[in-house]
From TrEMBL:
Chain's role: Lignin degradation and detoxification of lignin-derived products.
Provenance organism: Eucalyptus grandis (Flooded gum)
Name recorded for this polypeptide: Laccase
Keywords from the named record: Apoplast, Copper, Glycoprotein, Lignin degradation, Metal-binding, Oxidoreductase, Repeat, Secreted, Signal
Its EC number(s): 1.10.3.2
Length: 558
């Protein structure tokens, strides 16, 4: 086993984009932060030096961290924030994942500027399950908030105001840049150079805080070969739909007439139109053929393969094609006999307004899983579980919503949207086989995609559909042969998705929507997976130092 050390320094710097300079928290003075390159099986010690003005945590999105939730990172779930002026070392152990995963901050909305890629190459002596590409390019999709890292405070204000003033991205970026078509931006448009006739692996990370994205390259097809650090059956596509949190690896052959072509990334919006107020919708980069052709010829634009931003059909037909590679070397292991079955509604709800400043009068907006809006505890769940601290969480997360109704119907009664609030977790025995059907709802007329993300695991998506899940007919359509294996999957607007996993990673693992405003509004829970009988099937003990729990929301650093 190979291990190495990677220092990350967090501090605030001034960054200018779109003609405006703001102060943001970044890693190693760059946006996005540095890429961690490793091989499957490596162990990376990441030492985080927090030189910023407030507490932060980092999370290794897609890294399963077997038996070691202590290094997983989400604030109030597995740790408290690393106080300013202090260090914390994460152990990032790459075991099962291969391809592209990523890292990001995991407290409040700090991940909008604190993120980077993790490239996991095959073990030494192993190869990709496709011909070795001639080159590689990394694409991190990000969002820009012209208000900067004020986000914690803005969000607090927003929550007390009832929800709707929640900060919205000013626009989207590729590798920290807007690209052409945005004022003051075309000098820094990212360029990816290619040689005619060669094939490149593009590793794409959707680090956007709140949107699904469509991605396409003018005149070029892409061959999808991996998602979320797992290989897929190759599919040839003209665009991608990538959920926030997901990563996709695609092969692109430079086989068009040598020139310049736009790679464009655009929001896929599934919200009701009245909530959409974005400024710059499209981020661009240029794929540039090397060689002797006129550089003055403008690239072709727009990409006619980039779907319209409200094109649900394009999104659905893309995700329906996803399959695991399911080869001898990369087998599929969908758990059979299910021991725990859950049916979880993912929903927009409301809860009583704490004061008199809410948009809905007596209510403020909330998001829920099974009608419970998650409340962050003051001590992380992992510590409370390990040390038997009572009163931090309850173990009553329900396997079913409290009432059954026509989830995806129109004109649902507003009283159905009354949500409970709490820190309610689900407990699983070691090695249970779990099936979850996530059911989207149309409560408050606010159905949209919800990219549900699980920490500590990847899961198989064995079924997806629109409307209400049908217990009789839908399970008959499950794909148990080569379903895609992901850590994040979009529950479609007014639809459902069924997933399975084996609970073989003991610890405390966060489950949440990867759209940060939904996560902040409560679309979260945690699964406690109990220890097995042996040491190898039990959680590791905590490291000698964990950051103290003093960064509670009520006592922020000033
Ligand atoms: Cu990408 Cu809980 O995170
Ligand atoms: Cu959501």
């Amino acid at each position: 086993r190979f291990s190495f050390f990677c220092p990350l320094q967090l501090r605030e710097i001034n960054v200018t984009r779109n003609c405006t300079t703001i102060t943001i928290l970044v890693v190693n003075d760059s946006l996005p932060g540095p890429t961690i390159r490793a091989r499957k099986g490596d162990l990376v010690y990441v030492k985080v030096h927090n030189q910023g003005p407030y507490g932060v945590t980092l999370h290794w999105h897609g890294v399963k961290q077997p038996r070691n939730p202590w290094s997983d990172g989400p604030e109030y779930i597995t740790q408290c924030a690393i106080p300013p002026g202090t260090n914390f070392t994460y152990e990032v152990k790459l075991t099962d994942e291969e391809g592209t995963v990523w890292w990001h901050a995991h407290n409040e909305w700090t991940r909008s500027t604190v993120y980077g890629a993790i490239v996991v190459l095959p073990r030494k002596g192993s190869n990709f399950p496709f011909s070795t590409p001639d080159g590689e390019h990394l694409i991190l999709l990000g969002s820009w908030y012209k208000e900067g890292t004020f986000l914690n405070k803005a969000l607090e204000m927003d929550l007390s105001a009832g929800g709707y003033t929640v900060p919205r991205a000013t626009g989207y970026m590729i590798n920290g840049q807007y690209g052409d078509f945005v004022p003051c931006s075309n000098e820094t448009t990212p360029h990816f150079s290619v040689d005619y006739g060669k094939t490149y692996l593009f590793r794409i990370v959707n680090a956007v805080v709140g949107s699904e994205m469509f991605v396409s390259i003018a005149d070029h097809n892409m061959t999808l070969v991996g998602i979320d650090g797992a290989y897929t059956k190759p599919i040839v596509v003209s665009y991608l739909m990538i959920e926030p949190g997901q990563t996709m690896d695609v092969l692109v052959t430079a086989n068009q007439s040598p020139g310049r072509y736009y790679l464009a990334a655009q929001r896929f919006s599934t919200e009701n139109i009245e909530f959409t107020k974005f400024v710059h919708e499209v981020a661009t980069a240029i794929i540039q053929y090397k060689g002797n052709f006129s550089l003055t010829s403008p690239p072709s634009y727009p990409n006619d393969t980039l779907p319209y931003y409200h094109d649900y059909g394009a999104a659905a037909s893309f995700t329906q094609q996803l399959r695991s590679l399911a080869s001898e070397e990369h087998p599929v292991d969908v758990p059979g006999n299910v021991t725990t079955r859950m049916f979880i509604t993912v929903s927009m709800n409301h809860v009583p307004c704490p004061d008199d400043s809410c948009d809905y009068g007596d209510y403020k907006i909330a998001s829920t899983l099974n009608n419970i809006s998650w409340e962050d505890p003051s001590v992380d769940v992992l510590q409370a579980y390990y040390r038997n601290i009572s009163g931090v969480y309850t173990m009553d997360f329900p396997d079913l919503p409290p009432v059954m109704y026509n989830f995806t119907g129109d004109d649902l009664s507003t009283s159905l949207a009354d949500a409970a609030q709490g820190t309610s977790v689900k407990v699983l025995n070691y090695n249970e086989t779990v099936e979850i059907v996530f059911q989207g709802t149309n409560l408050l007329d606010q159905s949209e995609y919800h990219p549900m993300h699980m920490h500590g695991y990847s899961f198989y998506v064995i079924g997806v559909g629109f409307g209400n899940f049908d217990n009789e007919t839908d399970p008959q359509m499950y794909n148990l042969v080569d379903p895609p294996k992901v850590n994040t999957f979009g529950i479609p607007k007014r639809g459902w998705a069924a997933i399975r996993f084996r609970a073989n990673n003991p610890g405390v693992w966060y489950w949440h929507c990867h759209i940060d405003r939904h996560m902040s509004w409560g679309m979260d829970t945690a699964f406690i997976v109990k220890n097995g009988d042996t040491e190898e099937t039990s959680m590791r003990p905590p490291p000698s130092y964990m950051p103290p729990c003093i960064t509670s929301k009520d006592k922020p650093y000033s």
